[in-house]
Amino acid sequence: MSTIKMWFATKDMVISLAILLLVSVTPCSSAFWKTQNKVKTAVLLSPKFELRPGSVSNKYYYDIEFPRGHVALKGFTAEVVDEVGNPVPLHETYLHHWALFRYYESKSKLATHTNYDPHRVLHVSDSIQNSSLVLVRNSGICQGNSLGQYYGIGSETRGTNTDIPDPFGLEIGNPAEVPEGYEEKWLLNIHAIDTRGVEDKLGCTECRCDLYNVTVNEYGIPLSPSYEGGLNCCYDQTQCRLKKGFQGPKRTLYLRYTAKWIDWDEYVVPVKIYILDVTDTLKISDTSSSIDSSNHDCRVEYKVDPCNSESKKDNECVDVKRTRLPMQKGGYVVYGVAHQHSGGIGATLYGQDGRVICTSMPNYGSGDEAGNEAGYVVGMTTCYSKPGSVKIFDGETLTLESNYSSTTRSRTGVMGIFYLLVAEQLPHEHYLTHSSPFFRNINNVFN
């Protein structure tokens, strides 16, 4: 028994000495918890988009300005501004959402499209042989192109922290990952609704079909009579109903976005993006119960029914929506945040044993100025977990819960989306596996 105890003591002591030696010969004495690189920042403008009172712009801009090379993203934020750079408040232009996508484009077909072209198609496929444009999805579990973005947020964009703490980073631009003959590029989707002079601001932002006088979607397919509102009714160039006689000028607007990054090196611990959706109706194959055969169906948005009289009397006008989602691959949670619309009162992600992984709550504005607009969600609280303190296990089934206040009328087009950054290794584990062969061999001696 004493020999066994001595063996473990020796192992721990040798590894500890190796780590101390590793730190002492490393240029950065805090290499486990900080990167050696300084954060670089770029403030950029999207292509312009124009809006008249009540109008909608929902465009996709390809090959936007973005950090190039093998780097680690550390944050990305955005806001709508006018021609002179003034922030535009949500009660004038409602930012329904913006989303940032990564894609590969064939070098041989770079000149075949303009930057904004609604007919371009991003393909999701393991084989890129026949595709000129290929979406590089996040690690999330939704199907196809659904919720495949790297970043995405809505009205809460000004008040939500997206910074990734050291020593973690989101790896992009790795030349080893880009297929031969392709280039890595970035796509920006901006969905904005001008609510100046409209009859019903909330109804316009909830994309209620009657206010847009829409009965078919953007592809001309008739909508179900039960579909009261959502993305299918406020697509590009639709018009929300104005107050009688209202007139206002056309405005030229931009999305001003800020990217933060550092050069990639061995000190950066990579994170993966998982985007979960409370509308995901998971279907398991009849022939197998394995996670690989799961068929996810993320609908992105849903409707909150009006509060019934009995619930209203008991002050229980809260709509609770839940879904259970198996995670094939887990890891350590670094960051978490939810996305909800007006009426949202918070979302929580639970582990299989009921523990809280992250709760994210909306902050509502109380004024008129940009960033504090009364009645709008102007921020979401975030979860920054101490490294190693919150873990999702491989194969664990999570529960996502999204809560909305229920009113006397239905809420349409609401969302309950959860964004997670997950690291597969803790900083010291990552550094041991990416350090010199000498230190890796010391660790391997005892494994």
UniProtKB/TrEMBL annotation:
Pfam families: SURNod19. Keywords: Signal. Residues 1-31 form the signal peptide. Transmembrane segments: none annotated. It comes from the Eukaryota. InterPro entries: Stress_up-reg_Nod19. This is Stress up-regulated Nod 19 protein. It comes from Stylosanthes scabra. The lineage of its organism: Eukaryota, Viridiplantae, Streptophyta, Embryophyta, Tracheophyta.
